[in-house]
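Structure catalogue
Derive tokens from sequence
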Amino acid sequence: MTRQEARTILEQMTTSESLLRHARTVELVMEAYANKLGENPEAWAIAGLLHDADYQAYPDRHPNVIVDMLREKGEEHIAHAISAHYTHWGVPYETTLDKALIACDEITGFIVACAQVRPQRLEGLTAKSVIKKLKTSGFAASVDREEVRIGAELFGVNLNEHIDFIIGVLQQHQAELQLAPITQNEA
């Protein structure tokens, strides 16, 4: 499967701008980690892009619709990672891809939420400030803090370093993601 084919599938099932941006951010982070670890950047990016592809169209069947679709296309390794991207589903983590996706999903969304409430967005955002926000249960309350902790643990990364890595990746794409600092004219 190509990334363009994956993007087409995503866009057929997802119209929400925030979900599309979340898919793109996780795609970028997964691709960057694959490059860092010497893994397959296309497969990792596709896993990030499609992990929530069926969430809007089929919320009661998520992630089974996209997982079945990927299996039909012979993309078992990506399908398995997506089927395992939430610890409460009880799917075993067999590969580095599986562990990376669980480690990147929730925290990437949380970092974007942190950036969106700051006038300078991603500029100057640090792991320390993200960790502080994680301790505020009312902020981005839908983010499962335990998933963030377990994901980093499974992936074998220090949470502060993991957050800094993700911020760095997102900063490289902040204009595309509409996470660039707000100018005086926009405020």
